[in-house]
Amino acid sequence: MRTNPLAAVRNLGILAHVDAGKTTVTERILFATGTTHKRGEVHDGTTVTDFDPQERDRGITIFAAAVSCAWDGHRINLIDTPGHVDFADEVERSLRVLDGAVAVFDAVAGVEPQSESVWRQADRHGVPRLAFVNKMDRAGAVLDDAVASVRERLHPAPLVVQLPIGAEDTFTGVVDLLRMRALTWTDEGEANPAAPVPDDLRAEAARRRRLLEEAVAELHPGALEEFCDTGALGTGTLTGALRDLTRSGDAVVVLCGSAYRNRGIEPLLDAVLAYLPSPLDVPPVRGTGDDGTERRRPADPAAPLAALAFKVSATATGRLTHLRVYSGTIGKGDTVWDATARRPERIGRILRVQADRHAPLDRAVAGDIVAVVGLKSARAGSTLCAPDAPLVLEPPGVAEPVVSVAVEALRGTDTGRLASALARLAEEDPSLAVRTDPETGQTVLSGMGELHLEVAVEKIRRDHGMGVNVGRPRVSYRETVGRGVSGFVYRHVKQDGGAGQFAHVVLDVEPLDTPGAGFEFRSAVVGGRVPQEYVRAVGAGCRDALAEGPLGGHPVTGLRVTLTDGATHVKDSSDTAFRTAGRFGLRDALRACAMVLLEPVVEVTVTVPEDAVGGVLGDLAARRGRVTGSVVRAGATVVTATVPLAELFGYATRLRSRTQGRGTFTSRPTGYASAPAPAPTR
């Protein structure tokens, strides 16, 4: 019986908080699999996946990079994702097309804020994960503490399958608790042959193996049956149970090592093959056909084509569209149907991606992650399918930008080039938005954070060789209803020859329980005083009115509008009249309400030396921050606070000066909160 070749494919992402070691783990995987012959280093700017000049200058991952390698007869398609919160949208698009992931944690810091964010993103997409506790060679590294933070903050059942040999700078390897053997590495990072468990660790290894068996038996019915019959679990049963628990999301297998010293990478690769799913193990992809019904496509090269574009990038050789092929086969020169743009496209070339290097392919089949050249209309989120079997797959979600800057070309003659460069940026990164302010005429670039916009502007300067002026970042405010109004009457009457317009509406406006929680419209009209088709028109008009609020022209959210009464005219009432009445009626009703300005707030996690805590707390208070927690970890104090985003501009420089360069901070959006009066103007 022949094995399906798709069973030997793993589509894998590397997820973590910034500086936990994702890129170094990726580099060591490439080295261990023979894909590269020299270990790249982040601090030297020699990594494969951080190939962009800005990534090498800043020492962080900015753009998700795909690479492909082989291990033990399996093909691993690997995506190294960013760890900074400003680039969370890159992570979102990557997770949409992955079958599994490795979450990397710092052995000293444990679960950090962005670790938690990317974990939740993976939860939403149902992506099974392994946990790799990295930097076991660091001072203060304790595996049990890192595992405890996983249990407390992420809430899966962590199943530790290794025991460290040595600690901190004496960390030399691990005990494999499944096969009860010692795996060690030389000072140069070369793997030694597997050996028996050292005598001084034998009792501890046996104790931990027993704890692992008991934990697995509690979670897995098949393992529980064997455990009750024999009082122990065999290696085969344990491996199968760990695979089932990983793929169901009921538990996470935890491994450890030091990527920088090249220790623990080979067991991690073995665990990826053993526990994470292949394209055959995940449910068939679901989409919507032309008739609006749900369709499913299995991971079968012979099925009709269904592929999702998750990343678009411009290179010196042309426009690259990165695809995950879910079903079917795609060949060089094929004509496919872009179901999102509703137009045919021709595949010019197919490439196996190795970060910034590419290897040509004749075809790609279900389960592959590749890049193609020649697509003109495809964007991130577009579905490519067989022309005779159209299907639309759900695109990745796009986060709403929260920070804006005004940009203009340094020279007036470059205005057109700047517009073209901004359009290309927004095409490559859907979380960037470009618009023209109708009042000021300024070109406004919006993104997920200060660093996100800084990187985007620098990309324009480097790639297009033009000077760009940047205004101070501005945040996206919202308006909501603090105290509503009842029985607000609005009559729309217009008569200018011919058929007129008449609509009479009575509106109640009230706040929702959660500020910024969206908009609800409902009708409480009785007796048919407003026909149903006009009720829908009033609702559409009310939504039109939410674009600009009375305080400062910001979008309005967090309110409920109820149509309680109204009247019609036998000749002059129409959808248009009632939509107009809804728009202007709600606009005037909002002016009669007590409105509240909302500003975006972020959770800030500041890590500082203990002697600088007082100054940092005072600075957070001056920025209207509200401290929510403080813990001491490995000789440093970690302060968590909620701070208005507008107050964080320039905070990195201020923090460095207050802590002599020893303080760091990260932030993640948490929603909106009331802003103090007076309301800022646009």
From TrEMBL:
Residue span of region Disordered: 660-682
One of the GO biological process terms: ribosome disassembly
Binding site for GTP: 16-23, 80-84, 134-137
Predominant localisation class: cytoplasm
GO molecular-function term, one example from the UniProt record: GTPase activity
GO CC annotation terms, alphabetical: cytoplasm
Domain Tr-type G, first and last residues per copy: 7-280
Polar residues composition bias: residue spans: 660-669
Cytoplasm recorded as keyword: yes
Cytoplasm among keywords: yes
Keywords for this protein: Cytoplasm, Elongation factor, GTP-binding, Nucleotide-binding, Plasmid, Protein biosynthesis
Transmembrane segments: none
Subcellular location: Cytoplasm
Record function comment: Catalyzes the GTP-dependent ribosomal translocation step during translation elongation. During this step, the ribosome changes from the pre-translocational (PRE) to the post-translocational (POST) state as the newly formed A-site-bound peptidyl-tRNA and P-site-bound deacylated tRNA move to the P and E sites, respectively. Catalyzes the coordinated movement of the two tRNA molecules, the mRNA and conformational changes in the ribosome.
NCBIfam families (UniProt xref): EF-G, PRK12740.1-5, small_GTP
Family, similarity comment: Belongs to the TRAFAC class translation factor GTPase superfamily. Classic translation factor GTPase family. EF-G/EF-2 subfamily.
Protein's recorded name: Elongation factor G
